[in-house]
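sorry to bug you again but im stuck and you know this stuff better than me. theres a chain ive been looking at and ive put its sequence and its fold in token form underneath. id like you to explain what the token line says about the fold, in plain words if possible. anything you notice is useful, everything is just below.
___
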Amino acid sequence: MKKKKKSFPKKPALVLTAAALLLVGSTVGSTRAALTYYSENYSAQMNMQSIGVSLLENDKVVSSRDYISNNEWKGTSEGELLTDLLGKDDTFTPGKKYNEAISVKNSGTIDTFVRVIITKSWQDKEGKKNTTLSPDLIELNFLTDNGWQIANAQSTKERTVLYYTKAVAAGDTTPALSDTLRINPSIASDVTKHVTEFEKGKSITYTYKYNGYTFHIDAEVDAVQTHNAKDAIKSAWGVDVNVSDDEKTMSLQ
């Protein structure tokens, strides 16, 4: 007799994203962020009515999603980063550090573990990513002495994956995973000189490599239940972790 497979509810975790872009030497603009959730199968049952997560920037909620009932959610459906980065008449200055504290709040009613994926890129006026321009010049200063851990094996120059290694209780907020943002001033020195000879002289022009490009920062947040967390995280995130017996802390394998 064949054993019947257990069926578990889908939608076990939440994912929300926020994105922002900035034109070098100009005022700030921003892009919309979509809020979605996972539809992976869990190996443990979960009460969806209890889950919720919010992304904070400088202690201000940027985007959030909380389950109500019957597949209904409350919270913002889009988020924008860097909207308060500059003053009214300010222009962005490469080399200057700007406050950029990103954290996560558990806005649900059950304890969760959280992960944040930060993606940095340069895009042209049509929104096409230029992979020849260095995302390293987009310097978000990460803080890893407060419970956040960078998963180096999962990270690249463009993407940084961070895990908060402590369970986030309902209503609590993690410490900030970053504190400042700046664009490396070396972008101003990446210039090509063009000399055109004429009969009566010559003209010299300079072309800046990053001129006309915008830098993008995307923050994607995942929340996973702490109950049976080891299997839940493996199912939702595809990574192996160690979880303490009391399900209060986790560590990457």
Remarks:
- Residues 1-14, 19-47 have pLDDT under 50 and may be disordered.
- The longest strand covers residues 112-123.
- The chain is about 5% helix and 45% strand.
